[in-house]
Write the structure tokens for this entry.
Amino acid sequence: MTTKKQVRIVLITGMSGSGKSVALHALEDLGFYCVDNLPPELLLPLVKLERGNYAKRLAIAMDVRSAGSLPLVPQQLRQLKDKGYQVDSIFLDAATDTLIRRFSETRRRHPLSQRVTSDAAVDQRHALSEAIELERSLLSDLRMRSQVIDSSMIRPTQLQSYVKAFVAAPEEQLTLVFESFAFKRGIPSDADFVFDVRMLPNPHYEPELQALTGRDAPVIEFLQQQPDVQRMLQQIQSFLNDWLEALSQNHRSYVTVAIGCTGGQHRSVYFVEQLSHAFEQGWATLKRHREIDAT
């Protein structure tokens, strides 16, 4: 019979329109038994039922339509962990403007659209914005307890890759997520630490390097020759070395370190590659390149 230690439970929550269905499909590809829009009251009975059916991987999506009973979820997850289940929680987020655009393109109604003030309903965009902010408030506790993935600037295929990488990370060990990004497209909302490297020499202004990325040997060689680049790299490594153990002891499962430059192509990518390599011997690490992975 399947033991509790063998059972993996992944809870998917997040903002409406942020990609929960996409995440659930990614987990289905990995062999998870997936349940969408489960009322929280049914979480514990479902786990018991599926353990009896010898299910080893269970993915459950919940959303704000169950707002009245969502406060039950943190305690339920603690109960499952105390009983020996491996439980992970992913919260999908996105910028308000992105969510408004997605709802407008699909012409879907927000699940909280009936709960905004009648005056706001005169302006549909304002009404939708109010519904989104209400949803953020209702889900804030779950967000704080989950690994956050910002889907604002990424394609569905990228989101699927991020979710699959999350599931593949080692159990019961802090995982470092290094992410490169372009400041001109916004700071990732899932970042725990953000480092700005725009003041460093830019390979973009070297004609032979413009089309390359921070993973290519000529760009790596160029940046390795810049004293300020190496000084910044050493300082970030020192900061993380000083605090990662404390973060781990504080029961953190994931720490996302975002490195930003102007275009998200050269300097930030180089830093993510170098930092990931520097820490992969002592910690589980994941790499994300928001801009170049989208091309």
Observations:
- Residues 227-249 form the longest helix (23 residues).
- The chain has a mean pLDDT of 89.
